[in-house]
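Sorry, can you check?
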Amino acid sequence: MAFRFLSLALCLSALIVWAPSSARADEMCNETSYIVQVATAWPVENGVTVRGWTRVRPDECEELPGTEDLDPDIPVYIYAKTSAAYLGGVREWRGTVSLCVDETDFDILMNTQCSALGLATREFFVREGEQRNRTILAEPEDFGRRADEAGLQRLLQAAGFEVASVDGYVGRRTNNAAAAFRRQQGLGSGVTGPALLDALEAASLQRNARSGLTVCNNSGGDVSVAIAQRREDIWEARGWWRLYIGQCARVSADHLGTDSMFVYAQRERDDAVLPLLGGEDVFCMAPARFLAEGRDECESRGYQAVNYRRIPAPEDGGVQMTLTEIDFVATGDN
């Protein structure tokens, strides 16, 4: 019997499904519409071994290296994130155990704080007992065996091609978009399946590398970020993206124009929440995940009215905004 529970993650209510298996090594199966990167950790005598990254395409399973020799009673810790190719920032599957990760492939023995190693901190979830055998990442849409088709649709969107919806049911529009992508890249009609997904991911990473808004957290604590922007004739505010110390996230992949976007952020310190300083434009905000249309009468609609800061002038349609301690603590404050 499989067990399901909700894992709250950046911009995505993601499901993690535990399913027993007879596989010797621990296995990660991906039933989402995203290519995911997985980091794995387990306790050892002198600390914790942390290893990443294992890449898993939609509708594929991969063995997690290093777990095949572990005693069955040893817990294993898992953190997963989507490829940076997608619009709207990286999504995460995480838990409550804080461990170190690097941006590129890594294999470390962790026995001190992550900052001392020059690494970032991520929150891993735990697998124990029979739950260790197989982990299935899923989305609320529950694509199941349609995950590869949904993955094709989502990557076509990320690469700039029109797809009606990401539903895992491939029709004429999806096939036409895939054919147009192959022509654009000079690929033959035989490039399908995993090879097509890999080509789409590479093209999407290149296409989206400079566009949109990337926010980096160089403050002394974790930061939550919300944005406000005009969608046609309507102002829209939405959040949250959680950034750990040293983490960056692309919170929007839209091609940005002058004065097109505003940012609000909160920095956690001890038992207090410090708001971003320097904001002069009022938009709505809610403590939990939110999407608020319009910027007027926030309180009467159940939101809070807060001051958002205008982003710096974009270059080539993109902006990288780095938040430091002085963005939250005024000069002279303790």
Notes: Confidence is low (pLDDT under 50) at residues 1-13. The first strand starts at residue 3 and ends at 9. Residues 8 and 14 are 6 Å apart (CA to CA).
